[in-house]
Design a protein that fits this description.
CATH topology of the largest domain: Hypothetical protein yqbg
CATH class of the largest domain: Mainly Alpha
Helix content: 25-40%
Structural class: alpha+beta
Order of helices and strands: EHHEEEEEEHH
Distance between the termini: 23 Å
Number of helices: 4
Shape: elongated
Number of strands: 7
Largest sheet: 4 strands, antiparallel
Radius of gyration: 20 Å
Oligomer: single chain
Strand order of the largest sheet: 1-2-7-4
Length: 182
């Protein structure tokens, strides 16, 4: 089993509707525009997260590992915020000694080292990845705004179709946020 839960409240995202309205230069104040911009912000945040290879907003995961046996477990998810619980088949908490991550800007995986070798069918892991909205790096927030305008109004986006050479602002800016090891 693999469950992913994104924030339901748009106020948990790193950019606001007002910031997107400023970016697209739309001050109509129409409620249907605000509703559409909710979806645009969610989509833009997800797209930028996929482009850099990790979660931007706080995302909750529940993963089950069938027939688990071992003294450590590596999970290919980046930007770990917190390990909520590790549970065995009886929903009893499993002790772990430490969590290690690669020494890169935003680690793209983490390893849980258990106090003892364990066997569980299943082993359930609950954790969160991402940042609190106020801690998202400024460059990523800016790219979410640019992508939002791409999704909502192409004339304010990162490119125009009339350009003879396609140079994507988002692609160039996100290079520094990508992991060389992902």
């Amino acid at each position: 089993m693999y469950t992913v839960t994104l924030p339901s409240d748009i106020n948990e995202y790193p950019v606001t509707i007002e910031q997107v309205i400023t970016q697209i230069r739309n001050d109509s104040g129409q409620a249907e525009v605000d509703s559409e911009l909710d979806d645009v912000i969610r989509d833009a945040t997800e797209i930028i997260g996929k482009m850099v290879g990790y979660d931007i907003v706080t995302t909750t995961y529940e993963m089950e590992f069938q027939e688990f046996s071992g003294s450590s477990l590596t999970v290919q998810k980046g930007n770990l915020k917190s390990l909520v619980s590790v549970l065995d088949a009886n929903d009893a908490s499993v002790a772990y000694e430490r969590i290690t991550r690669p020494n890169i800007r935003v680690p793209n995986k983490f390893t849980i080292e258990f106090a003892n070798s364990i066997e569980a069918d299943p082993l359930t892991l609950n954790f969160t990845c991402g940042w609190d909205k106020n801690n998202v790096p400024r460059g990523l927030r800016r790219m979410i705004l640019v992508k939002s305008s791409d999704l909502y109004a192409e004339e304010r986006g990162s490119y125009t179709f009339s350009q003879s050479k396609y140079t994507d602002l988002i692609e160039r800016t996100l290079r520094m946020y990508r992991n060389a090891y992902s």
